[in-house]
Design brief:
The protein has 458 residues and is mostly helical. 78% of the residues lie in helices and 0% in strands. It has nine helices and no strands. The radius of gyration is 69 Å and the shape is rod-shaped.
Length: 458
């Protein structure tokens, strides 16, 4: 409160008298407070109503001693009140400062603790992500190795397919009755169908493998992105954990405390990583099952091909044995036929000679009969010589007829044997050609058949 000063009316300037807003007399008398009255107004009022102008200026604007005392007491009381209020405010400020300091330090310590716990959580999930990424990478490498095996096995089936089709084409060149749908052809056709089905199975498995590799890589990329986010978040939280009140890198960021709509909560954060890890684990299990499937497919198909190859080889051996036996039998029969042809030719020569030998006795007998027909008169009788000559001519004629018949039969037999000889020689040539195809071409070609290891993709 400003100090009170009296003002003289004789001064050349107008001054406002400083009166306290709080009237001491009103306070002492418990009256209602009124606003202070302007001294100039009071002077005018007193000047107009006063009977003496000379004394008006010394009376109207002055306080009474009681008012002066009351005014001083009010100033003292106000000063004491202000001091007490100041001490109270200072005490409350000190208490508030201490409490806020402790609370702030505790809150900051809790924030640092939470940051440390958060760092541990991020480190744990980041380690899990790294472990699953390594598992996915290793599993993908194993699947890629199985994919290469499948490709090699698929390429290896081209050789058996070419061998089987070449065998079928070569066997189409067999001649005559040997062009038969035998066991070898059935086994070869079965082998071709087996190779085609195996190739189709390899292609389907290869497509499935490519799809699984893509799924593994997608899952790995998802984990790597999650790992990258956690690595970046770990670095940021680690940097935040090192901040303290004396750090020079800190700045005021008024809008940083606002919660954005896109911010996730801890449960969503963990669920996101768990979902990614579960998806990666599913792909790892699927890859393992696929590798086992590929192993079984390669092993079973290789064994089936080798078993069918053995069946075809056995059928070839059996067929070659049958052809060899048939050829040997034909050669034996041909040898017998040739011997018989030689003997028959000699028989025909003998029969011809026998017929030729009968011509002279026939001429003699006929000449005798003819000359005896010239006997005169009664001398021309049927005597014993005549009967003997007639019988001799008949016997020789019968003998010559029998010899001629036998010669005809011998010639017919010789012709039949000649035909049989031609048939046997043709059959032997056919068997020789079939043996050349089956044994020298087909079986020698099948030596190039891949082994079990090659068919398994190694």
């Amino acid at each position: 409160m400003p100090p009170w000063k009296p003002v003289s009316l004789t001064t050349p300037h107008k001054h406002n008298v400083s009166r306290p807003y709080l009237d001491a007399r009103a306070v002492t008398q418990h009256e209602t407070l009124r606003p202070p009255v302007d001294p100039e107004t009071t002077l005018k009022e007193n000047f107009l109503t006063s009977s003496g102008l000379a004394s008006a200026g010394y009376r109207s604007a002055k306080y009474t001693p009681a008012e002066w005392v009351v005014n001083n007491e009010a100033a003292f009381n106000q000063a004491v009140s202000d001091v007490k209020n100041s001490e109270k405010v200072r005490h409350e400020s000190k208490v508030l400062y201490t409490e806020t300091e402790v609370r702030t330090l505790r809150t900051q310590a809790e924030g640092t603790k939470h940051l440390g716990e958060r760092l541990q959580d991020i480190h744990f999930w980041r380690s899990e992500l790294e472990r699953h990424i390594e598992k996915l990478e290793a599993e993908t490498d194993l699947v890629l190795a199985e994919k290469r095996r499948l490709e090699k096995a698929l390429d290896a089936t081209e050789i058996p397919f070419a061998i089987a089709t070449d065998n079928l084409t070569c066997r189409e060149k067999r001649l005559g009755p040997d062009l038969v749908k035998d066991l070898v052809e059935e086994e070869l056709l079965r082998e071709v169908e087996l190779i085609r089905s195996i190739q189709a199975l390899h292609k389907r498995t290869l497509d499935q493998t490519v799809t699984q590799i893509k799924a593994n890589r997608d899952a790995k990329q998802t984990l790597e992105m999650d790992w990258s986010d956690k690595h970046q978040a770990y670095g940021l939280d680690n940097e935040c954990g090192h901040y303290n009140n004396s750090s020079i890198e800190t700045q005021h960021q008024p809008s940083s405390a606002k919660i954005q709509n896109h911010v996730s909560n801890c449960e969503q954060w963990m669920d996101f990583t768990r979902t990614n890890l579960a998806a990666a684990e599913r792909e790892v299990r699927a890859s393992g099952e696929l590798r086992q499937l590929i192993e079984r497919v390669l092993q079973d198909t290789a064994e089936d091909l080798r078993a069918q190859c053995a069946s075809v080889d056995q059928a070839f051996k059996q067929r070659c044995q049958e052809l060899t036996e048939a050829k040997v039998r034909l050669e034996i029969h041909l040898s017998e036929i040739l011997q018989q042809i030689g003997a028959q030719e000699r028989n025909i020569v003998s029969l011809q000679q026998a017929l030729y030998d009968k011509e002279a006795p026939m001429r003699v007998a006929q000449s005798r009969l003819h000359h005896r027909t010239h006997r005169p008169n009664m001398e021309l009788c049927r005597d014993a010589p005549q009967l003997s000559l007639v019988e001799e001519v008949g016997e020789i004629t019968h003998t010559m007829s029998a010899l001629a018949q036998q010669l005809s039969e011998a010639r017919a037999s010789l012709a039949a044997m000649e035909e049989s000889r031609m048939v046997l020689e043709k059959a032997i040539a056919c068997k020789t050609h079939s043996l050349f195809i089956d044994r020298d071409k087909c079986m020698s070609h099948r030596i190039r058949y891949p082994d079990l290891v090659t068919l398994s993709g190694y």
